[in-house]
């Protein structure tokens, strides 16, 4: 066997003699250039951060980054190089079935720091769940071009616009979740079919119509909350009250 190391980096290669002919060089992956994500998959790594709800891990080539929790689902990272220019850059946690348990809603630089915005699978702002982490991979001169990619910072106005977009997504997600908690999609389909077939009693039809009116009120409240930054979006008081009997009717069909 022959080993080859690059003078300008940490990469190692080897080849072997087979039948009197040298094979091509293949790269060696080890703990200095790989890491494992939350699902156990091996990933190529340069500097990597594992962002937990309340702390950081730096399993490969530590850069001495700092972490501040600025609000629900809002993490501010300091002392980080640019994100990797090639290969993977973000890895979100999954459950045992491969479904995401959290995702990155936004990732941007402002005021010298990297801002990571996290939401749940439905789009609601959410802290990173306990026992999970989000992985970020950064540029490394040893494995990428010697010139680091440019770092673009958002202005205060651009951050405000991004915040408004995140709020709109979160409000719409909250509205949808509240409607589906009362009227699941299957129940909505079944109720519409029962109405079309004339199978609802007069009393049930009245409840059904009240439910439709409530959905319209929910959508109107959603638009109001989106356009008014001061309006609360959490808590029952921010949303119209569900009419009596609607949830029970949805559960029966």
Uncertain runs with pLDDT below 50, 5 residues or more?
none
Terminal-residue CA separation: 71 Å
Estimate percent helicity: 25-40%
Radius of gyration: 26 Å
Broad shape: elongated
Q: Label the structural class.
A: alpha+beta
Q: Main sheet?
A: 4 strands, antiparallel
Structure commentary:
Helices cover 28% and strands 25% of the residues. The chain has 4 helices and 15 strands. A hairpin with a 5-residue loop joins strand 6 and strand 7. Helix 1 packs antiparallel against helix 3.
Write the layout of secondary structure elements.
Elements: E1 2-5, E2 12-15, E3 17-18, E4 21-22, E5 26-28, E6 34-36, E7 42-44, E8 48-51, E9 56-60, E10 66-71, E11 74-78, E12 90-91, E13 103-110, E14 113-119, E15 134-137, H1 156-182, H2 185-196, H3 202-227, H4 246-252
Antiparallel strand pairs: 1-2, 2-5, 3-4, 6-7, 8-9, 8-15, 10-11, 11-14, 12-15, 13-14
Helix pairs in contact: 1-3
């Amino acid at each position: 066997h022959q080993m080859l190391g690059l003078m300008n980096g940490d990469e190692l290669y080897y080849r072997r003699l087979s039948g009197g002919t040298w094979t091509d060089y293949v790269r060696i992956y080890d703990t200095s250039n790989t890491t494992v994500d939350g699902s156990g998959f091996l990933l190529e790594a340069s500097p990597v951060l594992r962002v937990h709800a309340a702390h950081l891990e730096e399993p490969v080539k530590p850069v001495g980054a700092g972490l501040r929790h600025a609000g629900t689902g809002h993490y501010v990272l300091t002392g980080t190089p640019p994100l990797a220019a090639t290969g993977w850059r973000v890895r979100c946690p999954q459950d045992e079935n491969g479904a995401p348990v959290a995702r990155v809603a936004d990732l941007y630089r402002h005021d010298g720091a990297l801002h990571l915005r996290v939401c749940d699978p439905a789009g609601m702002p959410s802290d990173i769940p306990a026992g999970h982490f989000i992985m970020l991979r950064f540029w490394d001169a040893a494995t990428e071009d010697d010139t680091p990619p440019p770092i673009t910072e958002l202005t205060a106005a651009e951050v405000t616009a991004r915040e408004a977009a995140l709020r709109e997504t979160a409000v719409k997600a909250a509205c949808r979740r509240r409607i589906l908690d009362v009227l699941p999609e299957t129940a909505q389909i079944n109720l519409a079919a029962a109405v079309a077939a004339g199978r609802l009693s007069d009393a049930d039809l009245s409840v059904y119509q009240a439910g439709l009116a409530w959905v319209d009120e929910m959508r109107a409240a959603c638009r109001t909350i989106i356009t008014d930054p001061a309006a609360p979006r959490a808590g029952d008081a921010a949303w119209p009250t569900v009419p009596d009997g609607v949830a029970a009717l949805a559960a029966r069909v």
